[in-house]
Amino acid sequence: MSTVRTVTALCLVGGALVGIACSSPPATTSGPAVSTSVVIRLTGSDTMVNLDQAWAENYRKVKPDVSIQVAGGGSGVGIAGLIDGILDIAASSREMEAEEIARVVKTAGAEPRGFVVGLDALAVYVHEGNPVQTISLEELAEIYGDGGQLVKWSQAGIENTACASDEIIRVGRQNNSGTYVYFREAVLGTTREFRLGSIDQSGSKDVVALVSRTPCAIGYSGMAYAMPGVRALKISKKKGEPGFAPTVESALDKTYPIARPLYLYTRGTPTGPTKEFIDWTLGEAGQQVLKDIGFVPAPAVNK
After folding, report:
1. Is the pLDDT of residue 52 over 70?
2. CA distance 20 to 153
3. pLDDT at residue number 15
4. Which of 31, 41, 50, 237 is most solvent-facing, going by the fewest CB within 10 Å?
5. Burial of 60 (0-12, 13-18, 19+ CB in 10 A)
6. pTM for the complete prediction?
7. How far is CA 279 from CA 47, 287, 289, 301, in A?
8. What local confidence, expressed as pLDDT, does residue 27 receive?
């Protein structure tokens, strides 16, 4: 069931605001007396929040009577809101889990519908003073994983002279983040957990900003969040193999090993203004906004 709301303008009657249809204006004025606006609530992935906001702003130019209310908080927050029925669309940088799907079915009476609206080559960032250029998934697992053996840059064969302590400072995301979940599954596997002691940030931009100020650091975040002071590493599947940089091309041809889909989820098949908005995000205009933000256009997988 859609939770899209129609908001009717409040009228000044007898000095008080009341939520009823306004009376007809004098003949000398122009335009309708009642102003209505459809509100679509979109919440979730912090990786996608800048994209969602850009979509909302550009869509308002096309549909001035439709307002997209955007909030972040993480993929888990968006999916929880979808389960509870307090929003219309959940943005997520990971797939919904079977238990989450079952809970939507229970509360909404229909399975959630997921739309792949783009791709993100999940980047691994280091400080610009760090000479490392390529790192393997195996090495990342030994840096981030429980029981990992790589705790100093020299152990990875890196002479990071900008880092006096030689310590690898791990920067990551909080566990309500889809980026956290995806990185754990793609790098650590299904049975291994993160090693304690990382510096976990609430936002994608925060991860990269901290790495830019910390010569000893390494961190993972969306490819669209690159900034001065950091470098995105090439990633290889195994140590010694050629690595690939996070680019549009490497994400689309799947040579970059940690590229992931970006999703918009609804409670059941969307209809009305919600469907129109999602169709727009997948169209030429919406995909151009996505490319301008720094993500990869969606493959043709939506039906």
Report:
1. yes
2. 66
3. 37
4. 31
5. middle
6. 0.82
7. 21, 10, 14, 13
8. 36
